[in-house]
TrEMBL record:
<keyword id="KW-0288">FMN</keyword>
<dbReference type="InterPro" id="IPR050074">
    <property type="entry name" value="DHO_dehydrogenase"/>
</dbReference>
<keyword id="KW-0560">Oxidoreductase</keyword>
<comment type="pathway">
    <text>Pyrimidine metabolism; UMP biosynthesis via de novo pathway.</text>
</comment>
<dbReference type="GO" id="GO:0005737">
    <property type="term" value="C:cytoplasm"/>
</dbReference>
<keyword id="KW-0285">Flavoprotein</keyword>
<keyword id="KW-0479">Metal-binding</keyword>
<dbReference type="GO" id="GO:0006207">
    <property type="term" value="P:'de novo' pyrimidine nucleobase biosynthetic process"/>
</dbReference>
<dbReference type="Pfam" id="PF13237">
    <property type="entry name" value="Fer4_10"/>
</dbReference>
<dbReference type="GO" id="GO:0051536">
    <property type="term" value="F:iron-sulfur cluster binding"/>
</dbReference>
<dbReference type="GO" id="GO:0006221">
    <property type="term" value="P:pyrimidine nucleotide biosynthetic process"/>
</dbReference>
<dbReference type="Pfam" id="PF01180">
    <property type="entry name" value="DHO_dh"/>
</dbReference>
<dbReference type="GO" id="GO:0046872">
    <property type="term" value="F:metal ion binding"/>
</dbReference>
<feature type="domain" description="4Fe-4S ferredoxin-type">
    <location>
        <begin position="302"/>
        <end position="330"/>
    </location>
</feature>
<dbReference type="InterPro" id="IPR017900">
    <property type="entry name" value="4Fe4S_Fe_S_CS"/>
</dbReference>
<comment type="similarity">
    <text>Belongs to the dihydropyrimidine dehydrogenase family.</text>
</comment>
<keyword id="KW-0408">Iron</keyword>
């Protein structure tokens, strides 16, 4: 059995999976429910200087996209500090308290949550893209806190990597990447109405559609800073955790999948991670952190090879081949090498791993690795 225990900023966790700040950790009862799923640490919904009044409706699923226009915690900071956080300390998990947003608000909140937090996560969600406004709350928090400060970065600013580098210089101990993407708009075409109740109808995108962007930022940020990176965005399976960690994440957070499929999602994700590590011969979760940084890039060199025994002639690859290079002939899938562009789509469409390619390894383009 692989060892799932990890350590981030001196905080030991029994596994690298945490909830992200949001709906499922909005109060003590919800935090207890998430804790029972086996997560490695607890993260609170964002505490601010007043209770939020969320627009109604504020959550919607459309296809594989998830939208929200929630704000921050719906309970007052007084309730958080006097009731929720003291009891959340008794859950037996490291407690990461999410705080937002401005330097003035952090100046008020940081000393109040200090007795209960193993780490504080600063949300930059509503601070715009002025780097000075994004960095000042970190400096303010550092004056008050001797626990690790994690900074959650938004993909909606011009240069996320520059933000992460600046956050490290300002005193951040870890980067949480990334928050939801937006603003976005989804329209109910039958009612000709927005799906969300914000003043503009706009919201923020999360879920599987966000994952490739999140993985990219985790990869870039983890090469640019010396502090840990926590990966967030689109995680719903154990292999998603693996991908984030291979890209450079020391741990992960997830929320959307657990909202849609229940808090038992955390249990399944943790089990999926453990199963992957065992099946692939890794002794611990830490073995895969940054693994992708140390490999080269590939170039496919010839048309696909078909494993006829695995292929069940489902035709998914045939339907999606824009070059008409694949066809079912008799009881076999065949490739026309003259038509094939070696684009690789068929391999990713095949549900039975029946399609493979020969490839050439190219030199690694990771600057830190090359050094």
């Amino acid at each position: 059995m692989a060892d799932l225990e990890i350590e981030v900023c001196g905080i030991k966790m029994k596994n690298p999976v945490m909830p992200a700040a949001g709906t499922l950790v909005r109060d003590l009862d919800s935090m207890r429910k998430v804790a029972s799923s086996g997560v490695g640490a607890m993260v609170s919904k964002t505490v601010s200087t007043e209770a939020a009044r969320d627009p109604l409706p504020n959550l919607a699923q459309v296809d594989r996209a998830f939208f929200n226009c929630e704000l921050w915690g719906e309970i007052s900071p007084e309730i958080w500090v006097n009731q929720v956080l003291p009891q959340a300390r008794e859950l037996g998990l490291p407690l990461i308290v999410s705080l937002g947003y401005t330097s003035q608000q952090i100046d008020d909140l940081a000393p109040r949550v200090k007795p209960y937090a193993d780490a504080v996560e600063l949300s930059t969600h509503y601070l715009g893209d002025d780097l000075a406004l994004l960095i000042e709350p970190i400096k303010v928090a550092r004056r008050h806190l001797d626990v690790p400060i994690w900074v959650k970065v938004s993909p909606n600013i011009p240069d996320v990597k520059a933000m992460a580098i600046a956050a490290e210089k300002a005193g951040a101990d870890a980067i949480v990447a990334i928050n939801s993407l937006g603003p976005t708009l989804s329209i109910d075409v039958e009612r000709v109405l927005p799906r969300l109740g914000s003043p503009t109808g706009y919201g923020w995108l999360s879920g599987p559609a966000l994952k490739p962007l999140a993985v990219r930022y985790v990869y870039e940020i983890s090469q640019s800073v010396e502090i840990p990176v926590i990966g967030v965005g689109g995680i719903s399976r154990g292999t998603d955790v693996v991908e984030m960690m291979m890209a450079g994440a020391s741990a992960v957070q997830l929320l959307t999948a657990a909202i849609l499929n229940g808090v038992e999602t955390y249990t399944r994700v943790i089990q999926g991670l453990e199963s992957f590590l065992d099946q692939h011969g890794y002794s611990s979760a830490s073995d895969i952190v940054g693994l992708f940084h140390r490999v080269g890039r590939i170039r496919y060199t010839s048309p696909p090879l078909i494993d006829q025994e695995k292929c069940n002639l489902c035709r998914l690859c045939v339907k999606s081949c824009a070059y008409d290079a694949l066809a079912i002939v008799g009881d076999q899938l065949v490739v026309d090498p003259e038509k094939c562009d070696i684009c690789g789509l068929c391999q990713t469409r095949c549900p039975r791993d029946a399609i493979s390619f020969q490839y050439q390894l190219l030199p690694c383009c990771n600057e830190r690795t090359l050094k």
